[in-house]
Amino acid sequence: MTKTVSDWHSGRLHRHMRVVRWGDFGQPVLIFPTAGGDAEEIERMQLIGALAPLLEAGRIKVYSVDSVAGRALANGEGSVEHRCWLLNQFHEFVAHELVPAIRTDCESEGIEVLATGASIGAFNAVSVTCRYPDLFRAAVGMSGTYDLERLLGFEGNGDFYFASPLKFLPGLEGPLLNRLRQRFIVLSYGQGRWENPDEAWGLANILGAKGIPNRVDPWGHEYDHDWPTWREMLPLYLDDLVP
Question: Is 110 exposed, middle or buried (0-12, 13-18, 19+ CB in 10 A)?
Fold first, then answer.
């Protein structure tokens, strides 16, 4: 399969961003890395290998990008205000720079992206789908960490409010909510080591209260918060969601 690497300077993030693509045809799938991951993390951790049948069949094209905001959150980079700003700007980068680049690469101005990721990558996938439902048709959050305030021990500011579904969804109304009600979000988790099912259920309750289609998928106790779990999960979900 074809692999391409590109980068450009993002004025929103004030840094160079690297994007990697695998495959040539099919539904564009944006996979967000875990907190400290880069754009090639999913290849090193053998997730691209697990998706090879879908890639080689031309059903999907996979994109990934450096986890700039996730790395800053995990490492405590700068002030709390800086981290919240960076998280919000990262999502703006995805919507206004990365998705247009994906559409150009796919030679389709209106194609909708499927977002996915694990851990904090799941947070990003669900958040951009809820914020920009005109750009994303579905999200698959695997072993998601959605309550970042609790995880990182800080109370977010205005930037964090707009970046976190737990914050902005309860008050969401109008055309954006109506559009989001036409989308679908999968929240899957294992019941093994390092997993916290409450993360998925807490978000699902908010999604359900707003009438946003979603499904919580518990996997067994042998599935840990780790790459072997996600390598098994994602091919199954994409096979179900992609024609």
Answer: exposed
Spell out the residues 6+ positions from residue 226 whose beta carbon is closer than 8 angstroms to its own.
Answer: 193, 194
Note the pTM of the prediction, 2 decimals: 0.96
Burial class of residue 52 in the structure, from the number of CB atoms within 10 Å of its CB (0-12 exposed, 13-18 middle, 19+ buried) = middle
Nearest alpha-carbon partner for 230 in 192, 204, 199, 203: 192
| Chain CA centroid to CA 128, Å | 7
Residue with tokens 């959050």: 141
What tens digit of pLDDT does each residue of 94-134 get? 999 999 999 999 999 999 999 999 999 999 999 999 999 99
For residue 80, give both structure tokens.
């709390």
Burial 188-204 (b: 16+ CB within 10 A, else e): bbbebeebbeebbebbb
For residue 126, the tally of other CB atoms under 10 A from its CB is 30
C-beta separation of 21 from 4 below 8 A: yes
Give the span between the Cα atoms of 232 and 24, in whole angstroms: 23
Please write the tens of the pLDDT for every residue from 174-207: 999 999 999 999 999 999 999 999 999 999 999 9
Domains of the chain from N-terminus onward: 3-241 (3.40.50.1820)
Q: Which DSSP state fits 95? A: I
Q: Give the separation between CA 144 and CA 208, rounded to whole angstroms.
A: 17
pLDDT digits (tens, 9 = 90+) for 72-87: 877 777 888 888 899 9
